[in-house]
Amino acid sequence: MSVRVGIPRALLYYYYFPLWKEFLEQLGAEVIVSDLTTKRILTRGVEHCVDEACLPIKLAFGHVQNLVDKGVDIIFLPRMVSVAQREYICPKFLGFPDMVRQNINNLPVVIDTTINLRKKQGNVKDFAQQVAAYFDKGFIKARLAFGQAMNKQKQYQDLLEQGLFPEEAMAILRGQERKFNKTNNDLTIAVIGHPYNIYDPFISMNLLNRLNKMGARVLTADHLTEEMIDQGVKKLPKKLFWTLSRRVTGGALHFHDNGKVDGIIHVAAFACGPDSMTGELIERFIRREGRMPLLNINLDEHTGEAGIITRVEAFLDMVRWRRAIV
Ligand code: SF4
User: Fold this and answer.
1) Residues with CB under 6 A from ligand 1
2) Where among 120, 149, 173 does a domain terminate?
3) Which of 173, 205, 226 corresponds to the end of one domain?
């Protein structure tokens, strides 16, 4: 019987799930994902996590708890330090496996192998080998499995760059047919924020679908190539060394400059230090140029759906009115 390895549908799930899934399956594991976010998952996360944590970390606690309930043999929580040279992931990711161990009872084995590519891309081989050892697989199998996983990840990123959203791209990788939706959208809106905020339908209050129903086609930073994002951040006087914040800011500034969107919605999480800084940077740049409508939305566990809908409706009305008079 295969070992059942649980992956939380939270944090970097929307970036790396195809890579992790392929890698673990190549090592002989059965991958189990936590359920879609619900009120109960969020509430359990809030109960188990420290008060000071940001909303996505609290939610990730709820997803880990959900995997414990499913009785998986192992929970996969790689310790993400850096995924690019001379850059870091937010420090909350680094401490996440320890926070989980401290606060959740009855945990199975946790794989918390470190990924730190800040100095050397080659460290990824050590990571693959250390994870493979949990499944009694050696060096060669680790390298082959990781190579296959990287191919899968490349296919996933190509699909995102073609304009698909993560769940659509993952469905295609599972072998489902691509759907082409005919829409009559009159606006294009860029939604900028961390994937774990904007793609989680519960946390974002279904923002992407709502925008679509209100007549707006949605683009996100994941639809852009790395070069486009880099072009956006080049406008800043200093390099941003947080990978996630670089993507958010570079995406916003690229959409602002290329004129292909009618407005930008920036989604931030309450108690997120990096978001408060990038939100300010984006707002300053966009307001200084004064030619792109911008809406800031802050999410926390108490955010009311009605308030968000009203603000988004008013924003789209303003974008349409502005477009009519310009
Ligand atoms: S970047 Fe912000 S939202 Fe994301 S984990 Fe760090 S503090 Fe939380």
Assistant:
1) 54, 56-57, 90, 92, 194, 244, 269, 272-275
2) 173
3) 173
What pLDDT was estimated at residue 42?
95
DSSP 36: P
Q: Are 8 and 126 in contact (CB under 8 A)?
A: no
**CATH code for the domain in which residue 302 is found:** 3.40.50.11900
Q: Is residue 30 part of a domain?
A: yes
DSSP 101-157: HHH-SS--EEE--EEE-SS-TTHHHHHHHHHHHTTT--HHHHHHHHHHHHHHHHHHH
Ligand 1 atom closest to the CA of 245, numbered from 1: 1
Spatial distance between the Cα atoms of 265 and 216, rounded to a whole number of angstroms: 12
Q: How far apart are CA 231 and CA 234, in angstroms?
A: 5
Each residue's pLDDT tens digit, 270-288: 888 888 888 888 988 888 8
